[in-house]
């Protein structure tokens, strides 16, 4: 029984242990390079020394992929890891510049939303509504008003920011 278990634990004869190093043009190790086996679609990554060790079929094609380097396709072989050194050329991923010109648009949306919220609050106010824009939360005691509604708060914040810019 133990012999049958040992035989099943060993990889089939067609599998090989493919290992090696992924390095840049200056022979520095590339950490976290992704090796993808085309046949199985499984991915493996390199360690901090650029080393990898995986079980594959002899002749499997693997793609080495890293965000900062060019992609490279390699073939699995039986050679020792010290002779499997794969060099990648530095080629960083570049993003296009993004222009952020939406402040005015966002401020207009904010203003509209605040007006809508204020209208809904006035409409849904309890029966002690006092028919003014002041104090939408409770009736005013003796003609005094407490609180501020959203439209007034928005105007106040906008005015204070404008005044602050003028002072600078």
Description:
The termini are far apart. The model has no long low-confidence stretch (mean pLDDT 78). The radius of gyration is 34 Å and the shape is elongated. The chain folds into 2 domains: 2-88, Carboxypeptidase-like, regulatory domain (Immunoglobulin-like); 103-167, no CATH class. It is an alpha+beta fold and 168 residues long. A hairpin with a 5-residue loop joins strand 2 and strand 3. It has 3 helices and 7 strands. It has a 4-stranded antiparallel β-sheet, with no helix packed on it.
Short key terms for the protein model shown above:
168 residues, 2 domains, four-stranded antiparallel beta sheet, three-stranded mixed beta sheet, 7 strands, 28% helix
Strand order of the largest sheet: 3-2-5-6
Total helical segments: 3
CATH architectural grouping of the largest domain: Sandwich
Summing up helix and strand content along with how strands pair, one would put the structural category as: alpha+beta
Total discrete domains: 2
Q: How many angstroms separate the termini?
A: 85 Å
What's the structural blueprint in terms of helices and strands?
Elements: H1 2-9, E1 15-24, E2 34-37, E3 43-45, E4 51-57, E5 61-66, E6 69-75, E7 85-88, H2 103-123, H3 150-167
Parallel strand pairs: 1-7
Antiparallel strand pairs: 1-4, 2-3, 2-5, 5-6
Short summary of the structure?
With 168 residues, the chain is of the alpha+beta class. It has helices at 2-9, 103-123, 150-167; strands spanning 15-24, 34-37, 43-45, 51-57, 61-66, 69-75, 85-88. It is built from 3 helices and 7 strands, in the order αβββββββαα.
């Amino acid at each position: 029984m133990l012999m049958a278990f040992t035989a099943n634990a060993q990889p089939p004869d067609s599998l090989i242990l493919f290992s090696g190093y992924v390095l840049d043009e200056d022979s520095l190790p590339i950490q976290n390079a992704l090796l993808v086996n085309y046949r199985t679609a499984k991915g493996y990554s390199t360690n901090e020394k650029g080393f990898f060790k995986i079980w594959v079929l002899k002749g499997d094609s693997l793609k080495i992929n890293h965000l900062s380097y060019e992609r490279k396709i390699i073939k699995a072989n039986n050679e020792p890891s010290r002779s499997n050194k794969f060099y990648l050329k530095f080629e960083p991923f570049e993003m296009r510049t993004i222009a952020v010109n939406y402040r005015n648009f966002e401020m207009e949306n904010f203003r509209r939303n605040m007006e809508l919220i204020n209208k809904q609050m006035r409409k849904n106010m309890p029966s002690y509504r006092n028919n003014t824009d002041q104090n939408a939360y409770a009736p005013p005691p003796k003609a005094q008003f407490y609180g501020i509604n959203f439209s007034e708060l928005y105007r106040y914040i906008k005015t204070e920011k404008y005044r602050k810019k003028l002072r600078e």
